[in-house]
Amino acid sequence: MISGALQIAGLLLGGLGMTGTFAVTGMPQWRVSAFIENNIIVFETIWEGLWMHCIRQANIRMQCKVYDSVLALSPDLQASRGLMCAGSVLSFLAFLVATVGMKCTRCRQSGWPTKGYILVAAGLLFILSGTTALIPICWVANTIIRDFYNPVVNVAQKRELGEALYLGWVAAFCLLAAGAIFCCFCRCCEKTRSYNYSMPPQHLPLNQHLHGATESAYSKSQYV
Asked: Dihedral (C-alpha) 178, 179, 184, 189: value to the nearest 10 degrees?
């Protein structure tokens, strides 16, 4: 009962993390224009993402344009595009592997030890995908904060943390939590099975032992 609940919880966290990773990869709100000092044009907001940049005017109209070339991106966004795509693929693969290894699913000629190994593989993939998604998010956030407090950077070029970064942190945490649940759960189950296998044999009750001794003595007396 508890094992099934833990597996379902891990699968749900992995599904949320996978969905969030896909959403963060496509969202344009990685960098948002900062309204500081002389840059107080509040009716126009600039969004910069991995694939496009958008200009939103007074909550009325929004125009988005895909980047003409990858070279038009900054180095952190270029690396983030590849890492987020890799993280999305890994999270989807981990979700499929976890679904196959669930206790409630039935596979041909697959016992519980085999499914345990499958769940461990799924947990490792979830941890790898969460780490892969967390690296570019932290990298971009560090670049934004560094440029924001850099006096050399022009005020019009300073940006703030966008909604995609916050959602990315939550998605990465869900992926890491799902991986930890699957790995720790399978490890605990492995220790429980090894403990059950190593239990000493139970001794016979005292009355059965005395009965066996009496029968052996009686047979010897008959033989004599």
From this structure: 80
User: Residues 75, 127: contact at Cβ < 8 Å?
Assistant: no
**Phi and psi at residue 59, in whole multiples of 5°?**
55, 25
Indicate the Cα dihedral angle 26, 84, 162, 62, nearest 10°: -20
pLDDT digits (tens, 9 = 90+) for 134-166: 999 999 999 999 988 888 887 777 888 999 999
Query: Six-digit token pair at 110?
Result: 């697959």
CA distance 162 to 191: 45
Instruction: Give the chain's length.
Output: 224
Beta bridge partners of 31: 48, 161
C-alpha closest to that of 65 among 88, 77, 81, 49: 49
Taking every pair of Cα atoms in the chain, the longest distance, rounded to a whole number of angstroms, is 117
* pTM, two decimal places: 0.76
Task: Give 126's contacts (C-beta < 8 A, 6+ positions apart).
Answer: 14, 17, 91, 94, 98, 175, 176, 178, 179, 182
Give me Rg for the CA atoms of the chain.
30
